[in-house]
Amino acid sequence: MIDRNYFHNMTHLQRMLILIGICLIAATAFTMLGYGIINLIYGIQMADMQASMAFTNENVNIGALKILQSMMSIGIFIIPAFIYSWLYSDHPFQYLGLKKAKDNFSLLLIVAAMLLLIPFINTLGEWNSYMKLPSFLSGIEQWMREQEDYLAQATTVLLKMPDIREMFVNIVVIAFLPALSEELMFRGVIQRQFSDWFNNKNVAVILTAFIFSAIHVQFYGFIPRFLLGILLGYLYIWSGSLWLSVLAHFVNNGAAVVFTYLYSQQILTTNPDKVGTEFSDIIIVLVGLAIAIPLIMIIRKRNTILISTE
């Protein structure tokens, strides 16, 4: 039997180290499991799969890649979040914030707000892409560019959707699984730990959002992802339910999948990634912000009132 009192008496730093250790072990185990499943289904050896992930040829098995990504999401985030919550609470689901949202109307409002924020997010991403480091950091900047290009290639491969079936597969693999797994880890575990550690919810939200953005290793999209992390953090604080953050995260990811599919099928004539990036789109960006911000404030007010009356 595991003595959970031993973990309860640890310092906050020790708890974070335990969390990192759990993530590393689970990530390794589920990555290997993913390779095993790929070999069983497609007959692809691990070395061949790793070679194809250079994305420099057309022989990438997209199905295998999606299996690997799914297993890594489960191994890096979901399993560690539940193990960690079990170590520190008799009620892991409650610890992680997996309880019903108090205000169903807020769920509708956040869907609308996230869709309205897309042009603004694209604008921030465009500005962020022009980031330039000082000359003495040119080596780091080159590495950052190479990493950005690699992940852009990976995203392009994953978002190849020849039919609607692949679109729904991507909604699960690229939108739902990352939204659920990352919110469990970042808002459900890390933000909570920082809040206890620093006794300050605002500091916890900002630190968690910083790590959330940095861990994606996409530096030229750091700012919009950082601000998104801040919004997700406050949604969790306001509602007391992780589901509101999960839904917002899912809409952000899912919209990219659906709009990319519609664009690839020529149902949409404008590249969704470019909406808001041109100077002529300034009205779209401002109108989206002018509506989305009040919607978010309404969510805050409604949930604050509900929590205060409990």
Give a quick summary of the entry.
The chain has helices at 4-8, 12-42, 46-52, 62-88, 92-95, 104-116, 118-128, 138-158, 164-198, 201-214, 222-239, 242-264, 282-308.
What are the key terms here?
single chain, 310 residues, mainly alpha, 13 helices, globular
Question: What can you see in these coordinates?
Answer:
The structure is a single chain. With 310 residues, the chain is mainly alpha-helical. 76% of the residues lie in helices and 0% in strands. The mean pLDDT is 89.
Shape: globular
Instruction: Classify the beta-strand content into a percent band.
Output: under 5%
Which bin fits the share of residues in helices?
over 70%
Strand-pairing-aware structural class? mainly alpha
Cα radius of gyration in angstroms: 20 Å
What's the end-to-end separation, in Å?
Answer: 37 Å
Number of helices: 13
Low-confidence stretches: none
Q: Main β-sheet, in a few words?
A: none
Tell how many strands the DSSP assignment holds: 0
Average predicted local confidence, pLDDT:
89
Secondary-structure element sequence? HHHHHHHHHHHHH
